[in-house]
# Entry
Amino acid sequence: MTADREQILRAVLENARAAVQHRPSRENLADYSAAADALEQYLNRSHADQSKASLKSEAAAVAYLTGQGYKIGKTKFNADVNRRLVAKTGGAFTAADLNEYAIAADLPRLDVAADNAPSTAEGVKVEQQRHLRLKNDITEGLYTLTADIEQMLSSRAATLKAGWEQFWRDHAAEIIRRVSDGMTCAELIEYGLELTEEHLDQYAQDADL
# Structure
C-alpha cells in the first residue's frame, strides 16, 4: 500500500509537470507546487517511519539494508551479528542501528538500475532539484505565464478596437465626400486599403510589434 501511494504521488507530480510545460498558467504552477510538496512530505514521513521501525529477523534486516541501497547478503549479515558488530535492541533490530552498522562496516552501495525508484532520501533530493530548476526557468523567463500572454493580447485587442473606432471618425466624412464626387468602386477599395495600411503601421509602432 505504501509503494502504491508513492507511485500515485509520483504520477500526479509527473502529470502536473507536463501540464506546466504545456501551459505554464498560475493554476498549473500551483498544482505542480502542491504535488511536489505532497510527495516531499510523504517521503519525509516514510523516512521518519523507517527510522523508528523495528525489524525482528535477520532476513528483514537484510531486506531493509538492501532497500536503503547497500550491498549485503544474509551470510555476511549473520556473520557480523555473531561478531557483535550489530545487535538487536529489545528483541529486534532498529533502522537507526542498522544505518549505523552500514556506515561502520563500510558496506558497498548497490548500483541502482535506471528504472528503479530512488531511495527515500534520494527521492526527496531529486524532487527538490526538479522543483528548483522549474522555478529558476520561470524566473529566468524560459516560461511565460499564459495569464500574462492573455492579458497582453487583450490589451492589444482593446487598443486595436479603439484605433479602428477613431479611424472611422477621422475618415468617414472624407470617404463620403469622395464617393459623392464620383469615386469609383475600384478607387474606393484602393483608397481604403491605403488608409488601412497606414493605420496598421501606426498600430504596430504603438504596440511595439
Residues 69 and 110 are 5 Å apart (CA to CA).
